[in-house]
Amino acid sequence: MNYVRLLIGIGILLVALTGCKEERQPEDVFESYIGHWQQGRYDRMYDLISETSKAALSKDEFVARYRNIYEGIDMSNLTVAAIPEDEEAKDGASDSETIPYRLKMDTAAGPVAVQGAMQLVRSKETKRQWKIEWKPSLLFPSMDEGDKVNVRTLKAERGDLYDRFGRELAMNGSIEEVGIVPGKLGPAGDETIAKLAERLAVPESFIREKLAAPWVKDDVFVPIVNVTGDRVHLDFGDLEGVAKRTKSARLYPYGESAAHLTGYIRQVTAEDMEKYPEKRLAADDFIGKAGMELIYDDRLRGRDGVQIAIVKADGEIKETLAKADPVDGEDIRVTIDAELQQSMYRSLEGDAGTGAAIQPRTGEILALVSSPAYDPNLFIQGLTEEQWGSWNNDPKKPLLNRFTKLYAPGSVFKPITASIGLQLGVSSVDEIKTIEGLRWAKDESWGNYYVKRVRDVPVESLADAIVNSDNIYLAQEAIEMGADNFSREAEKFGFGKSLPIAYPFPQARLSNDGISNEILLADSSYGQGEVVMSPLHLALSYTPFINEGKLIKPVLELTDGEEPRGEAWGDPVLAPETAAAVNRMLLEVVENPKGTGHGAYIKGRKMAGKTGTAELKRSKDEKGQENGWFVAYETERAGLLVAVMIEDVQSRGGSAYVVRQTAPVLREFTQDR
């Protein structure tokens, strides 16, 4: 009996407690919903929406919609807060209540701040529960059913590259591309493809491969090749399904002549995205792949903008939520003289070679040439496998950038050795040496090794030795000064130091691991042994002879309002009188009819220079490749200094061939222009 009474009592108590339980208010449900919202717990948000809303949208669809939109706009720092209302205005007996709120977030296009309103209704199942009446407007207030959030990239325009006179080295322009609309080919499609291949000088397989791409549809224009030059005027009107259209493209007006200097751009790859995560690259972006396009890529590329908008089903923009305008890339003006660049390239006539030209007073780089080269426009206009294979298989290596490589300078190094001897007081301009024959070895300790020269001049001064390019005279000078003195003074010319410009060059070297013996010292004195330099560094090493002993720092980029003033690259390397003495010797090399550089003589101009031949072989008796060098400059106005190297000159007159090829450039660009 007592047991039954106890159960009845408990039941009465439970009923009383249930009847007293407070109903959860709309504000509480709102707070829970926005709490989940701000933490990205979209599945928990779904649990709080009404039965009617759930019937229209599954949980997976709901979660995916929020996640896709917010990830697509790169949302962060989301905050949602109720806007306080007048409590007296609320109707507590209503089955529906609306709570206004402010929504703020950061996006890829900048901050978004909007006001919305959330409707809550009493649950149909139990009138004691409140649920969210979900609508698209809870994503963004202006959204209706059928609307979408659109994220559009606003592309920044790549900056142009200009030469010193404002001529475009790399620019944005347009090209025409030929393509096919597959659905319009008609029954004679195979014949059309064959005719198009013949007209474009490409294999049929090249065209069919383009048409076989997975994205191709019957009504979509499929680009085949870009047409430039003579092909621009080709007519395709007789080929059914073939059409031409214009598209924007990067153009390189100086083509091959400046290819290795400008480099080129190409569409971003997955490897690029992985390599440069900080650049936030998109699949349709273009990125610099070589030359100045690569070196200055961050500045040239600019920063894309973003527009986030609500769009209707028909694509019409309903509201722009946020917009970050693009920042176009920076235009960059460099010290290069495009006409000189082109002239030097053409002077090489397809030979494997390289050259650098500078303004020796200011250090401005006027030309950097590598021959042969490729046409950078083809990377943009459409590069065939055949063309790529041709470049790769060419023994002259047109894809190799020679002006950034290191080479043995040969006899063009001798003025450095001569200047060191004068600076140390080991020699003088008029010091006479008596040298018999074409071969010389210091003593028996050299074994079978010897130094040889081209001309047998028994009695010579240092000035004569430079004019005659006498290896033996300079080797004896180096032996007399010693390896330590020679190395210390030679290093002042920039050996072992990086060139202080943005374009990457390897460091010039006097030796691989120190000059450890007299044979290596002798060979080093005339630019053989282990001495290696780039043509630009070689050109710079002659600037002390023009600038009272001051080695001039190179300059590649021009800054508006600032003119290069010839800043020293380190302390002076020579006394002014030493520099002047070497300069006079180099004048004789060109002006003296017996001088090896006399082929570059220009009447009415004071031209100085030095020739050289570097032999690439493992032993004295071996017949190896010879690279010819010529360094030349005008001494009075000192507006131009060139250093040119051509490979394989042994059967073409040696360094005299280089002088002959370079002389027309000097005549053109040392005249009043």
From TrEMBL:
Highest taxon in the source lineage: Bacteria
Every NTF2-like N-terminal transpeptidase domain range: 25-147
Domain annotation Penicillin-binding protein dimerisation: ranges: 154-320
Alphabetical list of Pfam families matching this protein: MecA_N, PBP_dimer, Transpeptidase
Chief localization: membrane
Keyword set includes Lyase: no
UniProt keyword terms in alphabetical order: Membrane
Compartment annotation: Membrane
Cited InterPro entries: Beta-lactam/transpept, Beta-lactam/transpept-like, MecA_N, NTF2-like_dom_sf, PBP_dimer, PBP_dimer_sf, PCN-bd_Tpept
Residue ranges occupied by any Penicillin-binding protein transpeptidase domain in the UniProt entry: 354-657
UniProt similarity note: Belongs to the transpeptidase family.
Protein name: Penicillin-binding transpeptidase domain-containing protein
Species of provenance: Paenibacillus thailandensis
